[in-house]
Specification:
TIM Barrel; 38% helix; binds 2-acetamido-2-deoxy-beta-D-glucopyranose; carbohydrate metabolism
């Protein structure tokens, strides 16, 4: 190596080590620095041709995990009995693989998007168990080695905690749930197996029923590794971080991990800046709960932008539920979530430790700066531009200005 190349290489090392002290500029990078495995998003096949959208979703600085919104569901993958189709599911799996993103595979057994040959077939207990097992075995085998986790059974409970009545429950009884987990584990012993549901994000009849389901599955002798907390919330009605965190702890006490799997926070249309500000706080409550919970592994939003949200077509008059707007530009919720993740990373209180998130553990002070070099240069959009202990540049690139999020973190936007 020539001397000048050696100098360049050393400069590169110096630049890298300097960077590692700076706040992360993307959701996934910040989430990982804070101790989570990933920050992710759902997506769908029709969205992958939108280059403005994929430019963001491709970026592992922002998203380290992908969930297929629809096309791994039963009606897509086995539209008629014993006829399997993985073309669309593979497209999303390959998108994640190309980008080096984790894949949450979703889902194997659900009362919606189940094929009509299942829901209006003529079954005996034994024949329906065999059909369910064949479906699970085929699909889990197909995606073996590609999924971080499988949502094995989705939304099997009513809001009052009773079992939802549909074909599998009506014919097989509650045993269909442990039988599904058993079949998935047999097809891929390494993938994490999850039960996923909504309205189980705070203590109540449904959360208790989901905890009982974990015990039932284990008592049956089957394996369950995780609980997916969907977290479809409403602006101003999102539960507090502490109530979400204590509920997460009720699950992890049973020996399972938890993940926030479908986070969005919808508002009444038209979108207003007041609702956007409240929405930012609401998103942070859920992210904080995950950060405070040992064995909460990650947060997935559903989807990351308002353009492809499921909300307006499902909840009349509501929408604008996501981190980015329909022009794929970040909203206040994005900025606040990133700041919350960076603050947790700085405080060293990510979910890899059981310490509660408390900024008072940070000992950095302005007088103990590790570097006496004057800060120079400008900071790009969403970069850090200030905060206690921060020694980097404080001037934002035009047209952005530096805003204080908390005493430890200011950001350009
Ligand atoms: C169906 O068979 C399974 C497996 O043997 C059993 O656990 C379950 O109770 C049966 N369901 C009914 C309704 O008999």
């Amino acid at each position: 190596m020539s001397q000048s190349r050696m100098v360049m290489a050393l400069t590169g090392v110096f630049a890298l080590s300097t960077l590692s002290n700076a706040a992360a500029t993307g959701l996934n990078s910040a989430a990982k620095a804070a101790g989570l495995k990933y920050f992710g998003s759902a997506t769908d096949n029709s969205e992958l041709t939108d280059s403005a959208y994929t430019a963001v979703l491709d970026d592992t600085n922002q998203f380290g995990q992908i969930t297929p919104g629809n096309t791994m569901k039963w009606v897509y993958t086995e539209p008629s009995q014993n006829s399997f189709s993985y073309t669309q599911g593979d497209q999303i799996a390959n998108f994640a693989k190309t980008n080096g993103q984790l894949l949450r595979c979703h889902n194997l057994v659900w009362y919606q998007e189940a094929p009509s040959w299942v829901t209006s077939g003529s079954w005996t207990n034994a024949s329906l168990i065999a059909a369910m097992q064949a479906h699970i075995t085929n699909e889990v085998t197909h995606y073996k080695g590609q999924c971080y986790a499988w949502d094995v059974v989705n939304e099997a409970l009513n809001d009052d905690g009773t079992y939802r009545q549909w074909e599998l429950y009506n014919v097989i009884g509650p045993a269909y749930i442990p039988l599904a987990f058993e079949a998935a584990a047999a097809a891929d012993p390494d993938v994490k197996l999850y039960y996923n549901d909504y309205n189980i994000e705070t203590a109540g009849a449904k959360a208790t029923a989901a905890q009982n389901l974990v015990k039932t599955i284990k008592a049956y002798g089957a394996k369950i590794d995780g609980i997916g907390l969907e977290s479809h919330f409403i602006v101003g009605e999102t539960p507090s971080a502490s109530s979400q965190a204590s509920n997460m702890a009720s699950f992890t006490a049973l020996g399972v991990e938890v993940a926030v799997t479908e986070l969005d926070v919808r508002q009444t249309l038209p979108e207003t800046s007041a609702q956007d500000q409240q929405q930012a706080k609401d998103y942070v409550s859920t992210v904080q709960a995950c950060l405070q919970t040992k064995n909460c592994v990650g947060v997935t939003v559903w989807d990351f932008d308002d353009k492809y949200s499921w909300v307006p077509s499902t909840f009349s008059g509501q929408g604008a539920a996501d981190l980015y707007n329909s022009a794929v530009q970040p909203k206040p919720a994005y900025t606040s979530v990133l700041s919350a993740l960076n603050a947790a990373a700085t405080a060293g209180s990510g979910s890899s430790s059981s310490a509660p998130t408390t900024l008072s553990t940070v000992s950095a002070s302005p007088t103990s700066s590790p570097s006496s070099a004057p800060a120079s240069g400008t900071v790009a959009e969403y970069g850090q531009c200030g905060g206690i202990g921060y020694t980097g540049p404080t001037v934002c690139e035009s047209p952005y200005s530096c805003h204080s999020t908390n005493s430890y973190y200011s950001q350009c936007y």
